[in-house]
Design a protein that fits this description.
The complex is a heterotrimer of chains A (284), B (244) and C (263).
Chain A: H1 2-37, H2 43-47, E1 50-51, E2 56-57, H3 60-91, H4 96-108, H5 113-127, H6 134-158, H7 162-170, H8 175-204, H9 207-212, H10 232-241, H11 250-281
Antiparallel strand pairs in A: 1-2
Chain B: H1 5-38, H2 43-72, H3 76-105, H4 113-116, H5 119-140, H6 144-148, H7 150-174, H8 179-211
Helix pairs in contact in B: 1-2, 1-3, 1-5, 2-3, 3-8, 5-7, 5-8, 7-8
Chain C: E1 3-14, E2 17-28, E3 32-36, H1 43-50, E4 60-68, E5 71-72, H2 80-86, E6 87-90, H3 101-112, E7 114-118, E8 121-125, H4 129-142, H5 146-149, H6 162-174, E9 180-184, H7 192-205, E10 210-214, H8 218-224, E11 227-232, E12 235-241, H9 242-247, H10 252-258
Parallel strand pairs in C: 3-10, 3-11, 6-9, 9-10
Antiparallel strand pairs in C: 1-2, 1-4, 4-5, 7-8, 11-12
The chains are: A mainly alpha (284), B mainly alpha (244), C alpha/beta (263).
Chain lengths: 284, 244, 263
């Protein structure tokens, strides 16, 4: 009797310990970055162009660049991802094509980001002649996050209970009507989760950016999708490795990292709020 | 394993009870008739005891049937069996009652030999015992064919009753000292005729229980050959009636 | 008595499994027909053939005819959406959409629109709000649910009790104005009082619709149906008037099943 209770205690303590560890890690990370970069964070930092080889001024172009990139990723990978997921779940459940597709998606998710970078360089920059631009980087990032988006969306759609579908079919709805009116709304919270994960990943990737044309320093904002751009993750890398005085620019590095973190967290929060509102509306 | 063990157990118990009641009431009636035949007054107590047992079983089976209906929702064959039981117990009860009545009338007989001279009465008693025998037998063997023919023999019994009635009337008018005995004998004949009717009822219940159809009594043809009279040749009634 | 549904040598295969073996039977109009039998005997498979819900199951092959109104629903040129509009289905576990009560009932009519004659041609148009309101009210009344929900039509369908949810599903089906309604063990997830209410409703519905109900409870079949069909291992063993089946079944197997001695 006592043995069982003792085991229970030990195991639970272990679990609680792990949870605390994880939270601690996040706190330490945030704290470290914040204490390092807060001093440099100011309105000017966020709204001005960089000057003097990135040692002064702000990082507005980087913020805007990352923002545009996430926009491109959202508008490409979300529709394609969701549609692929619908196709996977609703239309080709058990055929060989469906199985091959599923396998391809799961494998693509494991490809390292630098390989995607190379892909982007070869296809978008060179072959399609899009050059080193926002669109090349955006497309590359979209393809990179596509597998993750498809998997999450697929899970969410497959989790919709078949009773809902059956009820819809029994009333005389077509397959597409059932998907549009019932399956998608039901799966939307799960799809939102997928979006959060995908976009967060895209926002933080550096390797693909490096190979598709992120700039070290720009004095202006991109005026079209074919223009060159800056990005926050690359800026952190650049400042931490290539800048003139590594020690002096440390605050800039940390501040940039902080801005990136806050941007990503902010987007996540927005998506979470949206998801909650949707969940409440479609209480299931 | 067959499911519904409680229900099956209850149905088996009911079967045993109704079988016992059928046999006991049949025996009671046969013994009472034998009393008249042999003038054996010692059988009276036995008949009374059997009747008491019949009455007990009547109540027991009644309650048992209602319990099964309330608790187990019987359908099809089970339902028909219970329906038959509920109705049969009343008729079997009458067998016992009439047996006692006949047994009690024997006291009044001063001249026991009076009966022995009544050929018609003896014949009638044979017939009736035969019908009762076959009614119970058809139930125990679930024999719808046998049950459907009981009515035909009842016609003969009714005819005999009329004959006996006129005969005894004649005797009573000849000699007023014989009126008491005569009336008693008429009553005995009457009871036996009633017993035959009740036996025919049982035949109807058995027919419905087995086939699910109702027997139409108007379908009888009458004048069917009667089985031989056994009561005086074989003192012990047939005892090879087993549970199906 | 006219025939609403006639099946002719109906076979159903799930991959290698021969689930229904040559079922031929008639279902009368405006009657309640119960389908009984032990688990796995093919009852649900059978009624799902009628409104082609078996199409949704991969690997399912249906052979034979299912004639509704003289037309075989399995014909290639028959529109399955139309079949399902004319033949409604209510399932075992109540499954209202996670929308408001109003939306639940209005979904069906909205899907199909109204067919009306205009300039000598048949055309489809959307319902007006008033028409939809009327349909919702009428359906909920017919399903004996109106009084309980009339002042909270905008509440979610899933906020109702089990019995109410099931009646909502029935209202939803009634809203598309089918000719035939199939019930697949509608009361097995409900308490006795809710069950009794739905049984009364089913008997009432037969005035205007043909009702087919699959049920595990023989007492239920006995209580509410006019005709009963007994299935066993994919075969139709016996079908007849309910009274006859429960008082004097013709087949030994039927008697064994309904007296509970199959096993």
């Amino acid at each position: 009797m006592m043995n069982r209770k003792a085991t229970e205690m030990v195991v639970f303590t272990m679990f609680r310990g792990c949870a605390i560890l994880v939270v601690l890690a996040l706190v330490v990370l945030l704290g470290y970055i914040a204490t390092g970069g807060l001093e440099r964070l100011s309105v000017e930092f966020l709204t001005e162009m960089p000057r003097r080889a990135n040692t002064e001024g702000g990082i507005l172009p980087a913020i805007v660049g990352t923002f545009y990139l996430m926009l491109i990723v959202l508008s490409i990978s979300v529709p394609i991802g969701v549609m692929s997921a619908i196709y996977l779940v609703e239309y080709e459940q058990s055929s060989w094509m469906g199985r091959v597709f599923k396998l391809a998606v799961y494998n693509l998710a494991g490809v390292p980001s630098i390989v995607y970078g190379l892909l982007g360089l070869g296809i978008f920059v060179a072959f399609l002649g899009l050059g080193f631009s926002l669109i090349s980087a955006g497309l590359t990032l979209s393809i990179m996050t596509l597998p993750l988006m498809i998997s999450s969306a697929r899970e969410a759609i497959a989790a919709v209970p078949s009773t809902v579908r059956e009820a819809s079919y029994a009333l005389g709805a077509t397959k597409w009507q059932t998907i549009w009116h019932h399956v998608l709304p039901y799966a939307l919270p799960g799809i939102f989760t997928g979006i959060i994960l995908s976009v967060s990943r895209a926002a933080g990737e550096t390797a693909p950016l490096m190979l598709t044309g992120v700039a070290m320093s720009l004095q202006r904002l991109p005026d079209s999708f074919f223009d060159s751009f800056m990005a926050l993750p690359y800026h952190v890398f650049y400042m931490a490795t290539q800048s003139s005085d590594l020690l002096a620019t440390r605050p800039i590095q940390y501040a940039t990292a902080l801005v990136l973190l806050l941007l990503v967290l902010g987007m996540n929060l927005f998506a979470i709020v949206l998801r909650k509102r949707y969940r409440d509306k479609y209480r299931w | 394993m067959v499911p519904r063990t409680t229900f099956n157990h209850e149905m088996e118990e009911l079967s045993k009870e109704i079988t016992e009641m059928a046999n006991v009431s049949k025996t009671a009636f046969e013994k009472s008739v034998q009393m008249i035949a042999d003038m054996d007054f010692s059988l009276r107590e036995e008949v009374k005891a059997l009747d008491k047992r019949v009455y007990q079983l009547n109540e027991q089976i009644d309650k048992h049937c209602l319990d099964i209906i309330a608790l187990h929702s019987p359908v099809a064959g089970d339902l028909r069996l219970i329906s038959a039981c509920l109705k049969m117990v009343e008729d079997l009860n009458r067998f016992g009652r009439y047996a006692t009545d006949i047994a009690e009338l024997i006291d009044d007989f001063e001249e026991g030999k009076a009966f022995k001279r009544f050929e018609s009465l003896r014949t009638m008693s044979c017939l009736v015992v035969g019908i009762v025998d076959d009614a119970v037998y058809s139930f125990l063997q679930r024999d719808a064919e046998k049950a459907s023919h009981l009515h035909e023999r009842d016609d003969a019994v009714d005819a005999l009753y009329d004959t006996i009635f006129r005969e005894i009337l004649t005797y009573m008018m000849e000699d007023p000292r014989k009126i008491t005995v005569g009336i008693d004998l008429i009553l005995v004949a009457r009871y036996m005729e009633r017993v035959a009717d009740h036996a025919c009822n049982i035949g109807e219940y058995v027919y419905h229980m087995v086939t699910g159809e109702r027997l139409d009594p108007k379908m009888r043809t009458g004048n069917v050959e009667q089985p031989p009279c056994r009561i005086f040749e074989h003192p012990d009634p047939r005892s090879d009636l087993d549970l199906k | 008595m006219t025939t609403a549904i006639r099946t002719d040598d109906l076979h159903v295969y799930f991959d290698k499994n021969h689930a229904l073996k040559g079922v031929s039977m008639d279902i009368e109009m405006n009657q309640v027909t119960a389908v009984i039998g032990p688990s796995g005997c093919g009852k649900s498979t059978f009624i799902r053939c009628i409104n082609r819900m078996n199409d949704l199951i991969p690997g399912c092959v249906v052979k034979g005819k299912v004639m509704v109104d003289g037309e075989d629903v399995n014909d290639d040129d028959v529109d399955v959406v139309d079949v399902r509009r004319r033949i409604g289905m209510v399932f075992q576990k109540p499954n209202p959409f996670p929308k408001s009560i109003y939306e639940n009932v209005a979904y069906g009519p909205r899907l199909h629109g109204i067919a009306e004659m205009a300039n000598g041609k048949l055309r489809q148009r959307k319902h007006t709000k008033k028409e939809l309101d009327d349909i919702v009210e009428h359906s909920l009344k017919r399903a004996a649910l109106w009084d309980e929900v009339k002042d909270r039509l905008d509440k979610s369908g899933t906020s109702l009790s089990g019995g109410q949810q099931q009646r909502l599903c029935i209202a939803r089906t009634l809203a598309i104005n089918p000719e035939i309604i199939l019930f697949d063990e509608p009361c097995s997830a409900l308490d006795p009082i809710a069950t009794a209410k739905i049984e009364d409703l089913l008997v009432d519905l037969k005035k205007d619709y043909t009702v087919v109900i699959v049920t595990h409870s023989m007492q239920q079949a006995a209580r509410i149906s006019d005709k009963t069909a007994f299935f066993y291992l994919g075969d139709l063993i016996e079908m007849g008037d309910t009274k006859q089946i429960f008082e004097k079944p013709q087949k030994e197997l039927t008697e064994q099943y309904i007296t509970g001695r199959m096993g």
